[in-house]
Amino acid sequence: DITTLEHVIVGRFTCAGDTVTVKEDGRFFLRNDNRKISYSVRSDNAAADANSEGSFYSIQAALLWLATFGGTNVSRKTKLVIRGPNTVLSTLTIPVNNLEIEGEGGASITISGGAPLTLFNLNGMTQFKMSKVNLFSNATGSTAFIDSALAVDGFFLDQVQITAGTGTWGRGLNFTAATQTEVSLTAVRIDVAAANAVAVSMMSPSRLRIFMSHFEFTGGGVNPSTALVLGDKGGGGALGAEVAVVQNVINAFVSSGISIYSSNFELQLNQISMAGATSSGITVLGGSFSGAISDNDVFGTHQISYNIAGLNNGTDRTTDIAILGNRATGPGNQ
């Protein structure tokens, strides 16, 4: 905090006589305010002016600045750097394409309130990235990410944790309409606990990659819950060409670890460690598939450990799918 008289640079002007020849904007920077202001926006757009960098006292102010000055030009890439703990009371709507939110210094964002809330709404913006940020819920049953515009195009999480605060999450990613193209989760953790909780729900993903991530149900054994729901259970969604879920941990979900409902896609379910799903471990239903389901470990009490349409119901609806090296315990089948 500023406790002594400080000079604040508003701007610097270079003049030739009575003509201003150079203007330099300094309005965003205070020299002695805890050294670093909590929110910085940096743009690599060509403009070297007031629209290229700024520092702010709240994440809402940073997003408002982006909505006003950032634009949605596809060539502009903007980074919002956040530091330390931050609490919001309402949904944060992403205002521009090509936005990257990066955390520094133990960065976290907590959604707080008396009813289930949504933390982030992509709002149709494309190529969104977030890294090194912890997301906490103080409002039980809340959702971390939605897209009200219904079509996700470019969504990347890296080293992001979506875990409980004083409340719990009901859903991590809830993309349940239209299409989801080019989605990547790497080294992500999502904990959910509400009734009918789902860590990741996508109606029609294409080029989906989930690597080295952890999904946990923390609500005990009484509530129905599923880690990953991909495709439309009603048959209306079709998965795209590539869906890869590789080297992940899935624990304690009551209904199913992974449920896939769709058709005509290249599927890779590999090296998944799963425990505690009391209904089914891996369920793939409703279409023709190619790819591989291999080297997975499904442990615990299961009615069905692997339920692959066509292999256990007498109707072969698979095409060129390899099921190799999987292990299961309990009363399941493979």
Q: How would you describe this protein?
A:
With 334 residues, the chain is mainly beta. It contains 1 helix and 31 strands. The chain has one helix spanning 59-70, and strands at residues 11-16, 19-25, 39-43, 53-56, 78-88, 92-93, 99-111, 118-121, 128-131, 134-137, 142-146, 152-158, 161-164, 169-175, 180-186, 189-192, 197-202, 205-211, 214-217, 225-231, 242-246, 249-251, 256-261, 265-270, 273-275, 280-285, 289-294, 297-299, 304-308, 321-324, 327-328. It has a 20-stranded mixed sheet that branches. Strands 6-8-11-14-17-20-23-26-29 form a 9-stranded parallel sheet, with no helix packed on it. The protein has a two-stranded antiparallel ribbon with strand order 1-2. A hairpin with a 2-residue loop joins strand 1 (11-16) and strand 2. 40% of the residues are buried.
> Mean of residue pLDDT?
79
Number of strands: 31
Largest sheet: 20 strands, mixed
Low-confidence stretches: 25-36, 45-51, 310-318
Strand content: over 45%
Shape: elongated
The rounded distance between the terminal residues' Cα atoms is: 63 Å
State Rg: 23 Å
Number of helices: 1
The share of residues in helices is under 10%
Provide the fold topology.
Elements: E1 11-16, E2 19-25, E3 39-43, E4 53-56, H1 59-70, E5 78-88, E6 92-93, E7 99-111, E8 118-121, E9 128-131, E10 134-137, E11 142-146, E12 152-158, E13 161-164, E14 169-175, E15 180-186, E16 189-192, E17 197-202, E18 205-211, E19 214-217, E20 225-231, E21 242-246, E22 249-251, E23 256-261, E24 265-270, E25 273-275, E26 280-285, E27 289-294, E28 297-299, E29 304-308, E30 321-324, E31 327-328
Parallel strand pairs: 5-7, 6-8, 7-9, 7-10, 8-11, 9-12, 10-13, 11-14, 12-15, 13-16, 14-17, 15-18, 16-19, 17-20, 18-21, 19-22, 20-23, 21-24, 22-25, 23-26, 24-27, 25-28, 26-29, 27-30, 28-31
Antiparallel strand pairs: 1-2, 3-4, 3-5
